[in-house]
Amino acid sequence: MGQKRMALISVSDKSGLAEFANGLSEIGFDFMSTGGTSKALQGAGVDPWDVSDVTGVPEGMDGRVKTLTPQVHGGLLARPGVERDLAYLEEVHGIWIDLVCVNLYPLQQEIAKPDSTPESVIEQTDIGGPTMLSSAAKGRRIVVCDPADYPRVLEWLRAGEPDREAFITELTAKAYVLVAAYRLLSGRYHGKGKYEGMIGTLVRACKYGENPHQAPAGHYSVNVDDPLGLDRFEVIGDGEPSYNNLGDVDRMLQTMTHIAAGFAQSYGGRIPYIAIAVKHGNPCGVGVDEDALVALRRMVTGDRRAIFGGLVMTNFEIGGAEADVLDGYELEGGQKRRILDGVVASHFTKEAIDLLSRKGNKCRFVVNPYLQTPMIANLDTMPRFRYVRGGFLLQPNYTYVLDLKQAGLENVPHLCAENLILAWAIGSTSNSNTVPLVRDLMLIGNGTGQQDRVGACKLAITRARDAGHRTEGAYAYSDSFFPFDDGPRLLINAGITTILASSGSIRDAEVKATCEAAGVPLYLVPDAEARGFFGH
Asked: The pTM is what?
């Protein structure tokens, strides 16, 4: 084999393999390989050694044993300059391996199949691959576990391996984390709920957490293939979002997707233009319309005071006209412009960015083209984690979508149904207890985070009136049932025209009677299916 360096390649995902192998060959590498990878390399014009020929040990157990030999792992773990290691390697007829390129059997895809079985999952559980990655990492070899790294590894090798220790350490850490995540898949599957965990990759560092003394803080991706995941959002310019900004973006996505899903389900896939403003996670302005500018105007006039310093999200492009509404539409008290902490949209024009920019990049611009697609109606189905002292809580995500038939709303006028869909989507994604008030497809008052439902009704009415809105003719949603009729009486006295809530109280009949006596329709959905608690 001469004095060439040796690369051991064994991959399940063969994308980019031909280019990578040819690049290594040009640099001066020889190759060892197994089975299907060997055939792929030969097809790319590279002639690899078969691992069995190098080790002198045949494959066995229907391919379960290929690389699990002292010849291979001695070649990965032997330390340079340590004579006893090199003597052992010579004794077992092993060969020094400089680079390992391995990706693993598609275990996650097998687990996700509807017809998968414990036997099929076991057969798609890679043993040799993770073991080679671990040995190569410990042996400080060049360990490549991600096809996305092929170009940068080639570039680094061609450049003469600058900052070798730092580069090897980075690759090593990635390999260890990949193996840990892969093994977690198996433990989670076979443990049937007994074991759970989460492994993330740093996307961006935040200046600090919720408060200045909570540092360091960062945004980590769990690497799921979700186009609406926060790791898929791109920041325009130098204004990196804060920890609080990113929390607000996640909350806005919950509200945005539920509004879109509610309209899509009820109206044959039709999704209107949606504009949302949040402050500390809860919507303080929401507007919906078939005209984007109208949706924006409804949003910015929802709570003119709370929106200052808040974050905005839309499912449409922000151009000059839209930016003008965000910046100055119906300002009060001699204010010259509306100060926003950030805007999240599908696209921005340069004109919009120039108009909305603040000194010191204090208005962040965050973009994701998928906000403007039907995908915006796709709810987040990943489980929700929450740290608690000594551990964490885990639950399925909130994926209920208001069913007009279930609520008895299929025959009501469209305007009534649309307002109630909007109120439900806002209330079920705001901190409970929540009662939002909606009129003319805009949020006029959001009573969030109250310890009792009467308090939520009072707060919603107070906030609406403080913002200069009439509560007469508005629609109300309660994120759970009314335990007494005192909440509905407050809403009725404020002129609320229709109420949507859940059923399940021992006083449901009393609540219904109060609404009927006032001529206010009360629509109920079962609390066990449709309760909208969020953000405890």
From this structure: 0.91
